[in-house]
Amino acid sequence: MSRRAHFATKFGVLMATVGSAVGLGNIWRFPYQAGENGGGAFLLTYALAVLLIGIPAMVAEFIVGRESHLNAVGAFKKIAPKKAWGGIGYLGVFTGFMIDCYYCVVTGWTLYYLFLAASDNLLGLSVDQYSLMFSTYSSSVFPPIFALVSVILITGVIVSLGVQKGIETASKIMMPLLFLLLLALAVNSCLLEDSQTGLEFLFIPNWSEFTIDTILSAIGQAFFSLSLGMACLVTYSSYFTDDVNLIGTASKISVIDMGVAVLAGVIIFPAVFTFGMEPEQGPGLVFKVLPNVFSQMPLGYLWSLLFYALLFLAALTSFISITEVVVAYISEAFKISRVKSVILTGLTFTLLGSVCSLSFGPLSGFTIADKNIFDSLDYLATNILLPLGGILTSIFVGWRLDRKVIEKQLNIKGKKGAAFLKVYIFFLRYIVPASVTCVLVTGLLS
Ligand code: PHE
Predict the structure, then answer these.
(1) Which residues line ligand 1 at a C-beta cut-off of 6 Å?
(2) pTM above 0.90?
């Protein structure tokens, strides 16, 4: 192995990659999508999407990363027959850059709410007051910028400490803590009076709501939640040692990621229904509805503190992984130190993140196709660039990459192995690109 940085332990590999996958996508996007798209019917479709599309696509990113041991751009350039394939890496870095600009804003909000919960300033208001409080906060100038700068600073310190001392150590501490918080909150929710209605909303398969859109939403959700399509897992797997089992790791990440998403639903819906609230999606749910739910709950202070700590940790570890894509690329491509690269990226994100944040306040009049800057970036990145990156990566590995590289990386041997490889390549050549293209096209038309 080269002198390049690598993760020291298999546990570290799992925690770092799960840290990337488990994020806002699991806690505020998944539960609502499941509830709205037929509950158990969506869960089943989602599980299939993860198995048939998510895992193959993730393994493809792992192959590229570990074979090259390079950053997103360098990885594709090094192992591709033609340099032009490096374009997939540039697309990944660019997408990461865009996501980072608005992900730091939301991670900042979670930090602020954690602060409110910890200082006992969150509970006791009415629904309307919570709505007003959130819109006043998010549209103000300095408080959200202060929060996002804090997030960038924390992330900067962790990332500049390097792959092992920074990212791996932080993930090994933060992720088990996150699982503990998740379990405590889920048990508490299940013990609530009307937990059954909430659990039914999430789990009972309602096939009457099942349409082609359900399938496409499940695939889109799988992509975002598993951190696919922007070379994030190419970057992380470039730090894997040769003894990491790529298929095994991808399967574990997917199962854990899905488990967290389901548990998030188990936490949120019983509570929302018990206290007579309406479930809402995204910011509305976690920043406007839940504070009111916690206000009515016995030991509300404790549960709100745990919940916002959970949300912040989940968002932070994902933010770290996206930032690492950009930092690794800049430091390797321009041959500057990791710390310099972190400072450069941090300053840029501070500037662009602030612009995104201001798009809820003073810059709200500045819109592109009726969306403010924040929403435009989110739309472009999640609906267009991530699927595009996923399609290109699977086409590259399925059609262009030397089979021997795939055999070596997946440790394929014997007849059974050869049969498996055929099926895997078939998925990469046809199933993944075709299904993700459908998601991309519907995303564009919506
Ligand atoms: N998977 C993260 C989430 O669920 C988001 C993410 C997307 C992270 C792409 C890295 C790359 O919130």
Answers:
(1) 20-21, 23-26, 224-225, 227, 230, 232, 318, 321-322
(2) yes
